[in-house]
Amino acid sequence: MNKRSLFAAILSLIFGSAACTAFAADTPSTVKIELPAETARLQSGPGVDTALQSCMTCHSVDYIYMQPPLTKDQWRGEVVKMKNVFGAPFPESDMDTIVTYLMSQNGKQ
Question: Is pLDDT above 80 for 38?
Answer without folding.
Answer: no
